[in-house]
Amino acid sequence: MYFLVKARTLLLIVLFAAATPHAEQTPERRKNSAMLAPRARAESDNRHATSSVLMSSDDRLLVVSAALGRQVSRSKPDCSHLVHEIYSRAGFPYRYSSSSDLYSGLNEFQRVTTPQVADLIVWPGHVGIIVSPAQHSFYSSLRSRVGVDFYDSSYWRGRGRPRFYRYVKRTLMAESSKRDQSVEDIGAEEKSDSSTVLETANFSIMDTLAVDSMRLSPEQIRNAFLKLSNDYGDSLRTQDLSKLRVPLVVFDQIKVERLKVKGKKGTVDIRIDGPLTFSDGQLDQKNRHDRQRWTINNHDQTTWQLDLPKAVIYISRDDAARLFAQQLARITDGTHDESPGLKLEKAELARTLDVLLAE
Predict the structure, then answer these.
(1) CB within 10 Å: which end of the chain, N or C, has fewer?
(2) What is the DSSP letter of 8?
């Protein structure tokens, strides 16, 4: 999925938080860490005292944004390299490990019983990243593509019971003041070359929908609407969603309830169900159940023209989740801008993404 109130609350987006139980720690440990002699471990701890903390809601947001906002490449990485790339891009590095090693457990991850967004889901031989626990969905390198699948499907159930792991952040507690100053200086001077400049959203909105057919059918109308929605999704990839000049309506499904044609004219009754509307950078979370009547005209013998609602963009939930994740990743990745305006924009984008992934 855009939550606010104080400055810190704006950053601690309630994304994926709320009613998720605390994770339980697994008794499993890596054998090599258990083999450390107590004296050697004590000396190491004295030199580098560390604290460990599980991922926050902000952290999980960064991971899922890095996943859904990932640029499509010609080559398809294997699942373990894909997960390693996404975690590294989000700022949570760990040594590369195969899915079999991840299944056995790493020091950088803690096994949990109840998954949250951005946790690892691992089978022997495959790994992915949880997108929505409520939908049992995860992101991974699949057979023919990189994308989202559902781990409660018959195929994944047939792979056996998966294990869930949560990233453990480790922070050095004691460092020399000289090193701290050096890190601060580097951070202040660091500039990102990977950021993408978003264009101000300004493109034409279709007010008619053309359907090529000798004999118009409800399925043809529905397919033409879905194609238009996909085209909007492609056009919006480089646009600044916070500056959209028209409402963006996210839908779950569209249904042609009634089609009436007489001669060269007619009407079609449409129902569009969706979870939210995004307009002027603000989220309207009210569920929409729009019923509309579109007029139909026979443009020529093989083309029908449907009149659409004025100045509205309709886009599917899946496309919307990718778009908002991509924009959030762009404005978060490599930027040190902590201005109130950018904080508000991040919070609203996160809130929207949370709604899109929650159901």
Answers:
(1) C
(2) H
Is residue 190 predicted with pLDDT exceeding 60? no
Instruction: Look at the block and give the residue holding tokens 């919070």.
Output: 347
H helices, E strands: number in the chain = 11, 18
- Spatial contact of 81 and 135, defined as CB atoms under 8 Å apart: no
Query: Structural domains in the chain?
Result: 1-29+48-195+333-359 (3.90.1720.10), 199-318 (3.10.450)
How is 29-44 classified by DSSP, letter by letter?
Answer: --HHHHTS-HHHHHHH
- Two structure tokens written together for 132: 């929505």
Q: Which of 241, 230, 235 is nearest to 315 (CA)?
A: 230
- Please determine, for residue 105, whether its predicted confidence score (pLDDT) is greater than 70: yes
Q: What is the DSSP letter of 217?
A: -
Tell me the whole-structure pTM to 2 decimals: 0.54
3-state helix, strand, coil in the chain (%, to 5): 35, 30, 35
CB 349 within 8 A of CB 326: no
